[in-house]
Structures are given as structure tokens and as C-alpha cells.
Amino acid sequence: MNIGARIKELRNLVKISQEELADKIKVSRGNVGDWERGRAKPGAEALLLLSRFFNVSVDWILTGEMLQNTDLFSQSCGKEISPRDLELLAKFHQLAPRDQIKVEGFIEGLLYSQTLSSNGKESTGRANEGA
């Protein structure tokens, strides 16, 4: 897969048109089309904008290989980043900052609950029973 195909794949994952992507990263729609068709390659500034917008490394856009950050992720949780992970991350980045905070809070709450359950400390709502 080439650079253009990876850009198109990312764009399709977040379900936006070439025109919408161009608007988001402040380039012309023609540039996006040329990248996707392999007629041109994005320059350094465009690569950074694409990387930030899609929250993927420039390495991945250029080579298709996930380096550095994903290796740290794999080491910390023992799992590889899947296309589904990228899709969820892309959707997360489309949210307004206040909604991102809500999602993070929800996830933290679920993880905390899961930790309590696995430690056998989950509250049953009867803490004062028998007192």
C-alpha cells in the first residue's frame, strides 16, 4: 500500500470526503486527490497536519509501519493496535474537547469498576446492613 492509499484508508475510516479533509487540514481538495491517486506526495507540513488530524505517526503514513509510540503501547498492554483501535481513536478526535473529557471519564469509571470487581470489593449497596 502506498502513501495515497493509506491517506484514503484513514479518510474512509473517519468517513469524511476529500473536500472535508482538505478543509480540516487547510489544503486544497486537489492536493488530497493528487495524494490519494499517487500523482503527488504530501510535503513535510502536510504530513504533520495529516498525522495530527488522524492521530497516527508520520512513519505510518510514509511506510505503513507503526513505530515508536505503538511499540510502547504494545509493551505496556501486550496488544497490537488494530484497525478498529485506529477507527475508535479517529472518532474520538472528532469529538469536541469537552466530549473527549466525558469519554475519558466514562472509560476511567469502567476501569475502576472492573478493578473493584476483580478485587472482590465491588459495593453491593448494603454497606451499612447489619450495623
Name given to the CATH architecture: Orthogonal Bundle
Sheet/helix structural class: mainly alpha
Strand content: under 5%
> Mean pLDDT, as a whole number?
81
**Low confidence ranges:** 123-131
What is the gyration radius calculated from CA atoms?
Answer: 20 Å
What order do the helices and strands follow?
HHHHHHHH
Quick one: overall form? elongated
CATH superfamily: lambda repressor-like DNA-binding domains
Total strand count, please?
A: 0
Provide the CATH topology.
Answer: 434 Repressor (Amino-terminal Domain)
What this model shows, in words?
The radius of gyration is 20 Å and the shape is elongated. The protein has eight helices and no strands. It has 131 residues and is mostly helical. The chain has one domain: Orthogonal Bundle (434 Repressor (Amino-terminal Domain)). It has helices at residues 3-13, 18-25, 29-37, 44-54, 58-63, 69-77, 83-94, 97-118. Helix 1 (3-13) crosses helix 3 (29-37) and helix 2 (18-25) crosses helix 3. The longest helix has 22 residues, at 97-118.
Short description:
By secondary structure, this protein is mainly α.
Secondary structure layout plus pairing:
Layout: H1 3-13, H2 18-25, H3 29-37, H4 44-54, H5 58-63, H6 69-77, H7 83-94, H8 97-118
Helix pairs in contact: 1-3, 2-3
Top keywords for this entry?
single chain; 131 residues; mainly alpha; 434 Repressor (Amino-terminal Domain); 67% helix
